[in-house]
Amino acid sequence: MELSFIQSNLNHCSAAQDLLAQYMVEEKIDVALISDPYRIDAHSTSWIASTGTNRAAIFIASNGVTIANVVRDPEFISARLNGVQVYCCYASPNQPLEDFGDLLQRLGDSIRSTQRGVPVLVTGDFNARSAAWGDWVENRRGHELSSLVESLDLVTLNEGSTPTFPRGAGSIVDVTFASETLAIRVNNWRVLESVFNYSDHHYIRYSLARNRESPSPAASNTFCGWETSGGIDSNSFLTGMLLAEWLEQGIGQDRLDADSEAVNLRARVTAACDYALPPPTSSQSGEDPSALVERGD
Length: 297
Hints:
Elements: E1 3-9, H1 14-27, E2 31-35, E3 47-49, E4 56-60, E5 67-72, E6 76-81, E7 84-90, H2 97-112, E8 120-125, H3 140-151, E9 154-156, E10 174-179, H4 180-183, E11 186-192, E12 203-208, H5 234-248, H6 258-276, H7 289-295
Parallel strand pairs: 1-2, 7-8
Antiparallel strand pairs: 1-12, 2-4, 3-4, 5-6, 6-7, 8-10, 9-10, 11-12
Helix pairs in contact: 2-3, 5-6
């Protein structure tokens, strides 16, 4: 199943935010990545926003989207959505260049600290212009942002030269970047220049295909197993499960998708079996821990 995104700067406009909500319902869009929103519902679990004046926000409209590892900054918000660490940013055009550099430093540090192997999506209005994402002008902000993108090995997803900010001669200041492993999963990135939205920025839409992962090591035939001929002591197994759960505390995962829950459960069962069962003799073949649980030995 694909995950659909819409990205926009709402120009702190109430009517623009109302139209976005209506458009998401009509088009069945899962996630909105919003720069300069008008309001945030702090009591709703569907909203995640940056600190302070809420310059950036993520709105989740679908119950099928899981949320974890929320990171808040005055100028960006990030959360792991269905296993992807998503960033939404907003840099005011009135911000001094030195402050813009500080934002990029914090953003870069946050992205680099992301758990290894977790794909990253970086979005927002940086008010930065560069030919690297299709603009015909490059300013200092654009140079600094493109340098950061290059240093992080991110892929620019912007396509074509349609302005995302159409006022005057137009400019491309709303951008989308992704890690290489994620970029190949992004489909149909486009600027919706014909959709009226009450903002001075066009919507950007794209979708994210489901990850086609290779079988995990736990599912391979290299599992070493345990000595199970004598059965398993239920008290020892329970102690092992409790120990595994205790060691997982503080990881900071709020809600996990089904695949992640399955991986975590498998890891806990494996740890419990390691605690409660002796290793196999050299003559025994391996046995998957899930088979042990299903059998109830």
